[in-house]
Amino acid sequence: VESPLDAVREAKRLFDELRSVYGVRVSADFIVGKNEEGEPALFVVADRIEGGDPLRGNAELSDKRRIAEELHEVLSSLVDYIAEKYKNGEYILWDIVRSEQYVYGAKKGEQEKHLYLVDLDPDMVSRNLAPGEPLSDERREDISAFVTELAYFIEDSEAALYTDFADIWKKLQNFCASVTDTKLRDDLLEVVL
């Protein structure tokens, strides 16, 4: 990102994309503006979600089933997300692959519960300058860390909800096997196999 304004715009674009392309419920809107010093800033207008950690709460059985269904969608979307970001050499929102970053609950004033991403720090990590160019060590480490955290998220979800996400594991394994950078592919396959 070349300037603070570019960073702010990119963070907004990434969160909007997470919501519109990948179907992850993001509990806020992002507005690009200026702070008191007149510098570009990203303002987050967050919805209040009444709920808790989807894996560590004392949810009723019907809620656990719903949580498992929504987690399945989110985890599958996160695999799609990292696959596309890798393929296209794009920035990655790092802080979206742990259960603590999500809340299962309802927006204030609403009854219907959903899984919401509530950790809204615009924490972006490296990108390639152009799709298809060799990966830097930093990019390789960023992708490896994302996939490792995602694998833990899947494991934790299966254990906490007594469910099996075999199809998500398969999808993640397929992505890892498709990685063209040999060192990264070997590192990723070690995590997911």
Description of the structure:
Helices cover 49% and strands 17% of the residues. The model has no long low-confidence stretch (mean pLDDT 89). It has helices at 4-20, 61-88, 137-161, 166-178, 182-192, and strands at residues 28-34, 40-46, 49-52, 92-93, 102-107, 114-117, 124-125. It has 193 residues and is of the alpha+beta class. It has a 3-stranded antiparallel sheet. A two-stranded antiparallel ribbon has the order 1-2. It contains 5 helices and 7 strands. The two termini are 35 Å apart. The protein is flat. The longest helix is centred in the middle third of the chain and has 28 residues, at 61-88.
Q: What is the compact description of this entry?
A:
This protein has 193 residues and is of the alpha+beta class. It is built from five helices and seven strands. It has a three-stranded antiparallel sheet with strand order 3-5-6.
Task: Furnish the topology, listing elements before pairings.
Elements (H helix, E strand, L loop, with lengths): L3 H17 L7 E7 L5 E7 L2 E4 L8 H28 L3 E2 L8 E6 L6 E4 L6 E2 L11 H25 L4 H13 L3 H11 L1
Antiparallel strand pairs: 1-2, 3-5, 4-7, 5-6
Helix pairs in contact: 2-3, 2-4, 3-5, 4-5
